[in-house]
Amino acid sequence: MTVVHHEASPELRLGRLGGLFHDTWVVALRNTRRMLRIPEIFMFGLLQPIMFVVLFTYVFGGSMKIGNTTDPNVYKNFLMAGIFAQTVTFATAGAGAGIAEDMHKGLVDRFRSLPMARGAVLTGRTVADLVQTALTLVVLAGVALIVGWRPGSMNPTDIGRILGGFGLLLLLGYAFTWIGALIGLSVRTPEAATSGGLIWLFPVTFISNAFVDSSQMTPWLRHIAEWNPFSATVQAARKLFGDPGLSQSHAWPMQHPVWASLIYSVLIIVVFRTFAVRKYRSAEG
Amino acid sequence: MEAAIRAEGLVKTFGDVRALDGVDLEVPPGTVLGLLGPNGAGKTTTVRCLTTLLRPDSGTAHVAGEDVLRHPDRVRRLMGLSGQFAAVDEYLTGRENLVMVGRLYQMPRRAARARADELLEWFNLADAGDRITKNYSGGMRRRLDLAAALVVRPPVMFMDEPTTGLDPRNRLALWDVIKSLVEEGTTLLLTTQYLEEADHLADDIAVVDHGRVIARGTADKLKAQVGGERVEVVVRDPARLDDARAALVRHAQGEPVVNERMRRITVPVSGGAGLLAEAIRDLDAIGAELDDIGLRRPTLDDVFLSLTGHAAEQGNGEGATTEGGDEDADAAKDKKKDRKDRVSQR
Ligand SMILES: Nc1ncnc2c1ncn2[C@@H]1O[C@H](COP(=O)(O)OP(=O)(O)OP(=O)(O)O)[C@@H](O)[C@H]1O
Ligand SMILES: [Mg+2]
Question: What gap in Å lies between CA A254 and CA B134, rounded to an integer?
Fold first, then answer.
């Protein structure tokens, strides 16, 4: 059989931008396929926020003061945007571990030896994570509705605003997967990427308005919480969902949460994507 | 004609380790260069520098006429790489892995699929093509990785220890693959730790040690440098060693070496199998009973010893100490003994 007649050429079919989209698509498909073959990861990723919804609703529900009420129903509606936001940020660990594993298993060498668009391996991974995050959010929103979350319970909303809220949540999740990508490229093992991708998320998501009314924190903590990029998205989602417990703070991100959320997320993407792609290209693993 | 692979003065350090210390290579189009060297010699580092995975600290490299440092993307379209460790996605099937690689070369989907089928067939993986590679054996993964390197029919190929981990049948099959690639004009750089393999596949051999090319030439030339083949005889009765030695001396190309403890005589020869038969007849004629007789070819260890004065694996003095083993059990031990004999011979 004739297997080689040299067809390879130094030119590629697609241009620069076309190549980036094409390669990203191929890598995203590959990662999505992997996720389908290891459904445990998705399942556990789903179980954790569901547990949070149930525990926070029923355990903390009666003792949390939102504004000037401790009505568990108010807390329930307050809580959901916070849990959604925390859930999307946990995609960070998945992205980091996935990329660290690709490095570890030598797959990154295979990719780097191919004439791929720069950044396609990482972008493909983050896009696949975005799909997974979106699925997680759909299921989680269903659970939230079951336990009694009612968008519009405080302020009027509509389907467009609700979708807008989820859009901002997804954008935040996407931004955080780029942080995960950089972590994954910087550590030596996939295990380190998982724990390294998670631990710092606890202070970021708890020193915020996600689970408690930040106006009741000590002043220095309150300032951190109100300027925390994560809080901006929580506040924006709450606002768009018509949920109770909006922060009344004069801090700019709390006054203009939708803009703040957009700006923060885009900024995170630009900064971390730049560093991650640079690190990927110079990785000498 | 311009070289298909050319490296000049490649230097690469990792902290204190000078992995490459000025590597120069030149591979004419359509030929095979075997990069031969012990663990840690710098073979993989050389391959990684040439395949755009690693940026050398200094030096230049060209592959298929393209500058590796200046136009890595152009080089990537013209070369195939199979690294030392198989790089395949565990959760994709063999076929999906190959199609993915084809797609990343921007082959149309249909062409990528057809090519994947062809390669699976070629590498004896057709039956396993639809299983996820996590359950492949090491040798199967290795073959899939080699197939992935051939997806675009690249004019220049790099294979880092391609036969490590293959069983004898698949090793021979891979040798055939390599030969047909070369027949069709592919330029190949392969690394190996076995002189025999380099001998069989390569037009030219470059011996690497401590990040430098310390010798270069055809297998015959290197072997001649080492001293060529020799007949090795193990005599049953130690008392007959001298008689046996006397019987063999007329075949010797140099001084026979006697190891009394091992009851072994090593005779440098030239003349191959026919000579072996003569030696057996001569020993038979004097009635010397033998435990073993064989023609030994130089091993990588021998080449190293002769080129560098130190053994391939590690350290310098180790070989000169007492004889350790007493069984000719396995090849590794055999090799070691060869080395020790040579050391004590000096
Ligand atoms: N990424 C790295 N970081 C630090 N040191 C490295 C790295 N890669 C290689 N080295 C060192 O460089 C030297 C050459 O290594 P290289 O992998 O090129 O050897 P090799 O000839 O391929 O050996 P082997 O036969 O074991 O594959 C070794 O001393 C090795 O420890
Ligand atoms: Mg190596």
Answer: 49
pLDDT tens-digit profile of B232-252? 899 998 888 888 888 888 888
Sorted by where each starts, the structural domains of chain B and their CATH numbers stand as 5-223+324-345 (3.40.50.300), 229-296 (3.30.70.100)
- Alpha helix ranges (H) inside A90-189: 91-104, 107-112, 120-147, 159-186
Q: CA-CA distances (angstroms) from residue B161 to A121, B146, B169, B175, B215?
A: 27, 11, 16, 12, 19
Closest CA to B116 of B88, B136, B137: B88
What confidence score (pLDDT) does residue A274 get?
A: 96
Contacts (Cβ under 8 Å, ≥6 apart) of B323: B259, B261, B262, B337, B340
Shortest alpha-carbon distance between residue A46 and chain B (Å): 21
- Domain range summary for chain A, segments of one domain joined by +: 16-281
The packing angle between helices B300-308 and B219-226, to 10°, is 70
Kindly report the pTM of this predicted structure: 0.82
Kindly give the distance from the C-alpha atom of residue A212 to the centroid of ligand 1, in angstroms, as a whole number. Answer: 53
Q: Each residue of B256-305: pLDDT tens digit?
A: 888 888 898 888 887 777 888 888 888 888 888 889 888 887 776 677 77
List all residues whose CB is within 6 A of at least one atom of ligand 1.
Answer: A 284; B 14, 17, 19, 37, 39-45, 84, 193
Which value does ipTM take for this structure? 0.88
